[in-house]
Write a structure and sequence with these properties.
Length: 722
Amino acid sequence: TPRQEAIREIALSKHQLNRVDFKTTHIKELYGKNVFNEETQRARLPKPIFKALQKTIKQGAPLDPTVADAVASAMKDWAFEKGATHYTHLFQPMTGITAEKHDSFLAPDGVGGAIAEFSGKELIKGEPDASSFPSGGLRATFEARGYTAWDPTSPAYIMENPNGSTLVIPTAFLSWTGEALDKKTPLLKSMDALSVQAVRVLKLFGKTPDRVITTVGPEQEYFLIDKSFYYQRPDLLYCGRTLFGAPPPKGQELEDQYFGTIPERVLAYMAEVEAELFKLGVPVKTRHNEVAPSQYEIAPIFENSNLATDHQNLTQEILRKTADKYGLVCLLHEKPFAGINGSGKHNNWSMSTDTENLLEPGHTPHENAQFLVFTAAVLRAVTRYSKILRLAIASAHNDHRLGANEAPPAIISVFLGDQLNDIIEQIEKGGAKTSKQGGMFQTGVSVLPQLPKEAGDRNRTSPFAFTGNKFEFRAVGSSANISGANTVLNTIVAESLDYVATELEKIVAGGKTLTDAIQALLPGLIKESKKVIFNGNGYSAEWHAEAAKRGLPNLKNTVDALPVIIEAETIALFEKYKVYTAGELKSRYNILSEAYVKAIVIEGKTAVMMAKTMILPAALKYQKDVADSVASARAAGVANPPGVETLSSLVTAINALIKGLHTLEHAVGHEAEGEPFDHAKYARDSIIPALVATREAADTLEGIVGDDLWPLPKYREMLFIK
Ligand code: ADP
Ligand code: MG
């Protein structure tokens, strides 16, 4: 059978595992090799141009248009030397993935030859036809004009290809009327909004940085399975996740996978992924096995949110692309396999100036007023706007993960850890006098060194955890573009810092010292935020009950979360900080609703196709085999032939499958009335239950039908045969 063939192929296949030789190419030489980075800019740009460009990159100064021509010309020469034939404006339309259209550098010279051209105008602005990207009603399709605008703060790079490389220019994507059609523009705006407010707060502390940047270090989880299995699973191919599949005899219960030895083929893959990312200047740092079988993680060192987001998108692309070279497929879906852990993306987030991380508590955080003010502002933001944060991670895919006892629940709470929690409680009661110290950790073994102990333990069950000197937003989905989560995070914290700055300024203007002002303000902030602080087990049923008692929102799925986008409070918030207009929010409401519907409908159609043309025929064939065997045994005089029970459970399961299939087919074929959101509701309430019922019957059948007849690679094969 094709399944057996796939397994044989995997057993015999010899993949080339030494494609990158780190003895001849040291990682230090690879790093940034294909990036038009500061070093390259310095070497290739006239000094005044270099300075002007750096001022934009580092201080957010408006870009002088005359700079563009000089930059473009230097970029072109550099790209040519690297073997580039084309350039592209890369943007992030609201599909969530990146988009690119390639243009050749060549232009006819008018006398039969050609010259290489790349002007400042071409660097700054592109004009892709916007009509085929989702706009959520922002503009009619006849007004198709969209512009891509160069983002000088994210350096251009070369995407290598043996068939001619491409100079890639990160850009924002806007409609002709100036509305953001992408995910980068709002992120940049949210960074600006936060910067303005954070600078105001720092000014009270006597500091005058030009700007405050937000930083992000996103950890990416993913699965790798053999390509031979992948192609035999239409569900993986079309939906990114298995719609059918009985649990394997062994899952993740032995806990032997997490941090386990990395298989050779996977390690070779990881090394090449890293080498490719190094060349692109993505500072990848960590790799390891994750909890589920065949699940892994890659994490970079943090960067400013904009760059981190671009690099995160690149990481997803390189992870996908490189897998092919090793006969593997990288699954970035949040829940490729039922019954074992899904994949997330821990979004580590902080704020910093050129010189300090504003969430760095130091040794005695209770005395660190500045740290406490910024932390309290974050707490207030998460408390007030927890529904918007929840919304920022909502997708049909992520619905499978959140609250499924492996990822944080859909209830947004904050984990502070012992030390910070203690300080917050002291402040609430009137003033913080001490910081609990970690001290030294006694190993109890004389040959082992004494270790310094952290002041607080970790908590893996919290959606939003303070982890030493940053917050970790753990509920983000593995396939998500992290710009959404960070745009929200930056904006809600900007609002909070605005409030804090305004209050402190008022009290100080009234003649009080800053210390008095802070002492007057913080206890109230903390009282308000108390309800989101939870240091216990976020996966437990008790927490769900407790959270309900505290009045914390629990938006269980995407459809529950979607209406938050168009609530008056949300619109007021984003308009005030000029991150989204009401129209842009409405468009995102429609786009997210549509994306949800499309994902579920494709799953429904795929499940119908598979159940009808693959699973049912196998089950009927087996039914015939068993029935024949029973009949012939009877004919031969066996009074109670074995197989009768099998036959009866087969018939029951086949009937259940057919029933589920009918309901599913009807649900998928039915058109809901109304707005995209109404369709989303319909998909959740009608298609998903039918999908679940169909799967249940199919998975039961998988446990009965003869193995040689089963058409789909099984969990036990996909997850364990490497
Ligand atoms: P863990 O898995 O224990 O949470 P990792 O080391 O895998 O830890 O990931 C931590 C991530 O947090 C890294 O990407 C790291 O660069 C990032 N990080 C550290 N400091 C900051 C910061 N100030 N701002 C944003 N991210 C940070
Ligand atoms: Mg982490």
